[in-house]
TrEMBL record:
Biological process terms in GO annotation: dATP catabolic process; dGTP catabolic process; dTTP catabolic process; dUTP catabolic process; methylation; response to stress; TTP catabolic process; UTP catabolic process
Protein name: Tetrapyrrole methylase family protein/MazG family protein
Any single Pfam family the record assigns to this protein: MazG
Domain NTP pyrophosphohydrolase MazG-like intervals: 261-334
CDD domains: NTP-PPase_MazG_Cterm, NTP-PPase_MazG_Nterm, YabN_N_like
Sample GO molecular function, one term: methyltransferase activity
Tetrapyrrole methylase domain segment(s): 4-211
Organism whose genome encodes this protein: Tumebacillus permanentifrigoris
Keywords associated with the record: Methyltransferase, Transferase
Keyword NADP belongs to the record: no
Highest taxon of source: Bacteria
Length: 490
């Protein structure tokens, strides 16, 4: 079986090169064996040349791949080919073979399929020297991430964070933008280059937003962020919010009000907060939308905490269920189904949702059984009508709907049952809204806002006269109402 022996060249200085790595290189050189370096951009490479070590550097692969992932896979493929041709090769990488070396990860993962044995030799990681430099013990909690493939989900500000492979100012810019989703723009960050290499080492602490302005960033650059529990940082984390709600429910030190709550007592607040979100959206106030969404999230996490204490589910089960549902109901995004229009998406969604219910044994006896009974009246009427219309139970055209509205008005005028006939009229008006492609809830909300604003105008105008509405006549208020309408049109 072919073999690849992988050794580390240490963090940069000749004294940091492990003796075992050098002995393996010497032995391979003496046997006229093939030696490959991932890159010759490393301080000890000139020393190796002086000592007669002959090698092939693979830097040219960096110019051929579309991205780093492709570069590292191309290097691994090349090394497998060379191992089969030579029987045994030595592959040398900066630092330690097991730290921040994607090519090594690829080689180890794919070795069995390639019928190649991988042997990991000595190494000395720059991480050791960096942690000593910044005074951090990794047992305090350490995240070690790759700057070329950094995602917000990986970041946890409560842990010390080291981001390696910040090769260039472009990579540093990407790292900065990702971190600024979790940290303040001016969060103190340490940028280190060539740690432990005399004459090349450079360490500088600066605000996060400045790290891509450094003109000395190169292939030996690393970024370090100290751990923090500052509220301005960790209060952006979902786990912190979950912990806060858990603290409110702590049986000994929690809040008396929160401790009394159940799913049933919290039910009204879910509805109230959802309507307040809708109101903020209608008012098109981004800050208010964010604030109200936070209040709604509070209800969700609080319900999950109650359930967690009961042993039925927790917030992570809620997230898992929602994630799986979104993936399942969007096969045109996450699988092979196609949906070119919004209508196609809605049709797929309905089919998948129906199959989910069938899989659970939830077979509706009647078509309208799937419309939740707890919906507000106007919204429920709208959904009932859409369901019925989908199977052909609908008016032929808009004129028929207007006729129905007039019929219901006449019946209301002549009835001894105003509640029942008024309900019929409202139902007909919702049908009219559907034919006009108007959201009835939104239309009524708009009118409610308009009424609120006009009546406030009346109050302000009367207050300027030293009067209140109760001290005014209907004629006075009606005139001011018309003035408010006129002002809206101007």
């Amino acid at each position: 079986m072919a073999q690849i022996t992988i050794v580390g060249l240490g963090p940069g200085s000749w004294t940091g090169l492990p003796l075992g790595s050098y002995q393996i290189l010497e032995t391979q050189q003496a046997a006229a064996g093939a030696i490959f370096l991932r890159t010759e951009r490393h301080p000890v490479v000139d020393d190796l040349r002086e000592k007669g070590i002959v090698f092939v550097a693979l830097d040219s692969f960096y110019d051929e791949g579309e991205d780093f992932g492709q570069v590292y896979q191309n290097i691994a493929n090349h090394l497998f080919e060379q191992a089969h041709q030579n029987g045994h090769i030595v592959y040398a990488v900066p630092g330690h073979p097991g730290v921040a070396e994607i090519t090594v990860q690829n080689l180890r993962r794919q070795a069995s399929a390639q019928n190649v044995q991988i042997v990991i030799g000595p190494g000395h990681s720059f991480l050791d020297d960096l942690l000593v430099k910044v005074g951090v013990d990794p047992t305090d909690g350490l995240l070690f991430l790759d700057g070329t493939s950094l995602f917000p989900r990986q970041v946890n500000p409560s842990l010390h964070t080291v981001i390696a492979q910040v090769y260039s100012r472009d990579v540093a810019s990407d790292v900065k933008l990702t971190l600024m989703q979790q940290y303040p723009d001016d969060y103190p960050v340490t940028v280190a280059r060539a740690i432990g290499v005399e004459g090349l080492e450079r360490v500088e602490t600066m605000p996060l937003y400045e790290i891509d302005r450094l003109d000395w960033i190169d292939h030996m650059t690393t970024v370090y962020l100290p751990a923090t529990l500052a509220e301005a940082v960790i209060n952006r984390q979902l786990w912190q919010f979950v912990d806060i709600i858990a603290a409110l429910r702590h049986p000994e030190t929690g809040c008396p009000w929160d401790l009394k709550q159940t799913h049933q007592t919290l039910r009204p607040y879910v509805l109230e907060e959802a309507f307040e979100v809708a109101d903020a959206i209608d008012r098109d106030e981004p800050d208010d939308i964010a604030d109200e969404l936070g209040d709604l999230l509070l209800q969700i996490v609080l319900h999950a905490q109650v359930a967690s204490e009961e042993g039925t589910f927790d917030i992570y089960e809620v997230i898992r269920s929602a994630s799986e549902k979104m993936i399942r109901r969007h096969p045109h995004v996450f699988a092979t189904a196609e949906a070119e229009t919004a209508e196609d998406v809605v049709a797929n969604w309905a089919d998948i949702k129906a199959q989910e219910r069938a899989d659970k044994g939830e077979v509706d006896e009647h078509l309208l059984d799937s419309v939740p009974a707890a919906l507000p009246g106007i919204l429920m009427a709208h959904k009932l009508q859409k369901k019925a219309a989908a199977v052909g139970f609908d008016w032929d055209d808009l004129a028929d709907v207007y006729d129905k509205v007039r019929e219901e008005i006449a019946e209301l005028e002549a009835t001894d049952d105003p509640a029942g006939e008024l309900g019929d009229l409202l139902f007909a008006l919702v049908n009219l809204a559907r034919f006009l492609k108007v959201d009835p809830e939104e239309a009524l909300a708009r009118t409610n806002r308009k009424f609120r604003e006009r009546f406030a105008y009346i109050e302000d105008a009367l207050r300027a006269q030293g009067k209140t509405p109760s001290e005014s006549t209907l004629v006075e208020m009606d005139n001011l109402w018309n003035a408010a309408k006129k002002q809206e049109r101007s």
